[in-house]
Amino acid sequence: QVQLVESGGRLVQAGGSLRVSCAASGRTFIRYAMGWFRQAPGKEREFVAAISWREGNTAYADSVKGRFTISREYGENTVDLQMNSLKPEDTAVYYCAATPGPGGWYGTALSDYNYWGQGTQVTVSS
After folding, report:
1. Which of 29, 34, 63, 67 is surrounded by the most beta carbons within 10 Å?
2. 11-15: which pairs have CB atoms within 8 A and are 24 or more residues apart?
3. How far, in Å, CA of 38 to CA of 124, rounded?
4. Are the C-beta atoms of residues 94 and 37 closer than 8 Å to each other?
5. pLDDT on residue 89
6. Does residue 9 or residue 104 have the better pLDDT?
7. Per-residue pLDDT at 26 exceeds 90
8. What's the pLDDT band for 126 if we cut at 50, 70, 90?
9. Nearest 5°: CA angle at 92, between 61 and 123?
10. How far apart are CA 102 and CA 85, in angstroms?
11. Pick from 55, 59, 43, 51: nearest CA to 97
């Protein structure tokens, strides 16, 4: 079992930056692919970014490519999402997700992930 806890969400102005973090506990998550998803009010949860547990392969949604960066720190069992040049349309609850998988693999679909955090609210004001 893996427990995921997100933190760092807050209100930020458009054009600003924010870093949200996900702390994993329980079973080691060294061999787990990690992902970030988000859900805006009235919309479905959508993929944001993902990272494999080996080789550091990453993927991003087109809407955040070039603005967001996903990274992981094995020693601290954390996965971060650095968000720059934030836009009002980035407003959402951001969820961390984890799943075991091959070393260079990451998932981009909700169904790819077995474990989810409770989410952290990010609000971008215009």
Report:
1. 34
2. 11/123, 11/124, 11/125, 12/86, 12/122, 12/123, 12/124, 12/125, 13/86, 13/124, 13/125, 14/86, 14/87, 14/88, 14/124, 14/125, 14/126, 15/85, 15/86
3. 14
4. yes
5. 97
6. 9
7. no
8. very high
9. 120
10. 33
11. 51
Using pLDDT thresholds of 50, 70 and 90, give the confidence band for residue 74. confident
Q: Rg of the Cα trace of the chain?
A: 13
Phi, psi of 96 (to 5 degrees): -95, 145
Q: Where are the beta strands (DSSP E) in 1-126?
A: 2-7, 11-13, 18-26, 32-39, 46-51, 58-60, 68-73, 78-83, 92-100, 115-116, 120-125
Backbone angles phi, psi at 90, to 5 degrees: -85, -5
Which is it for the CA torsion 41, 116, 66, 12, positive or negative? Answer: positive
Residue indicated by tokens 């490519």: 65
Identity of the residue numbered 66: G
Q: How many CB atoms lie within 10 A of CB 6?
A: 23
Q: What are 62's two structure tokens?
A: 């087109």
Structure tokens at 84: 């720059």
